[in-house]
Amino acid sequence: MPFTFESILETNTMLNAYLIALAVSLVCGALTAFAAGFRSYATKSFLMCLILLPMIVTTVIMMVNGNVGTGVAVMGAFSLVRFRSVPGKAKDIAAIFLTMTAGLACAAGYVAIAVLFTVLVCAVMVVLSFIPMGVQKIMDLTVTVPETLHFHDAFADVFAKYTSSCRLVRTKTTNMGSLYKLFYKVRLKDRNQMQAFIDDLRVRNGNLEISLAEAADNGEDL
Known about the structure:
Elements: H1 14-37, H2 44-64, H3 68-82, H4 90-107, H5 111-129, E1 139-146, H6 156-162, E2 163-174, E3 179-188, H7 194-204, E4 210-214
Antiparallel strand pairs: 1-3, 1-4, 2-3
């Protein structure tokens, strides 16, 4: 049988096998944390979670080791953790599944498979981070206009010039009804022209307040 598919549990004492599995799971977690944080925003707490999670999974699974009662208790504990977690981005959830898979492989003693699998998936994650995929991120645009301006088509030509899509999502009055605030969801054709886009809008709205920012929800959550 090839060495890659051999379990260290068959050739080592329980203590040695546990220490080897723990060390390998730590390496797998560190590799996953690096790939998950590469060219994307990730908090320190999330990266620490990715590093420690394989070690935790390895220890839990090795403790269960065929004990049905312990297995049911562990399943209940993990189900409670799910309800205390907030929705995450698709990439974050994929990284968590990767670390858990590596931890399971280490717990079964297949440390070579765990390392090989982690390296391959992390390499794919890094490569994909350089490839532009999907639609450009949506931005929130807020434009303040005077009540005398007919805003329905006042910015149509400006939006056609700078945006690939634009949608008015909300309107409200402000300053005792003398002003309107218009809230748009827009996708810019070229983000390098962001300043020119705002300048052209200022000409139309009488140099009143304009805000352009990344949308709070860009469709990445699961």
